[in-house]
Amino acid sequence: VYEAHKNKSSDDKYMQNGGLYLVVLHQEHGTVMQAARYRTFEGDADKELIAALKTLQKDRIIILAAMNEAFSALSQQARMYLKQQGSRVAEELHFGARWAWVWSKGATTWAEGFMFSLNNRVTHRVEMAGNLYLTANVPKKEGSRCSSWPSSSSWAQRHQFCDKYEGYGDLCSCHNPVSISRPQTL
Asked: Which residue numbers delimit the ILEI/PANDER domain (predicted)?
């Protein structure tokens, strides 16, 4: 990040790369199913992040990482949601902190790391936290996700889609999938 933006002012660099990054991996084969960045220091991005997390299917491997001002305007509601999901430190972080968390939806935290930023009393500026390196070993979770779905070709297509992409909520729900009907032609 530094190399790409070293000629810009520090404010531009931080604003361009800041926020919470979300990556969702398939629990069986580890492929990326969804990737997004939420500029949680602007508007309602934290509400969008929580809505996105709520739509994820059980057992998905979720990686959240914070850059720069990700926590500067993160609502208490969002912090509490992250805590309820298993984060041990999201509630305590503030502007300039680095944070990464690897967890499975509805299950286990595999790794969580953080570095706090420092308030410089002489310059009255926040010194951003340094680089954060985090390693997580997540075991593969095998087995058919939605064995209760019918075996028709349209359900097979849905299963194929839902096994590749994440973030579609009830469309891919194993227990209560939304009904899809094709339009009738006249």
From this structure: 19-107
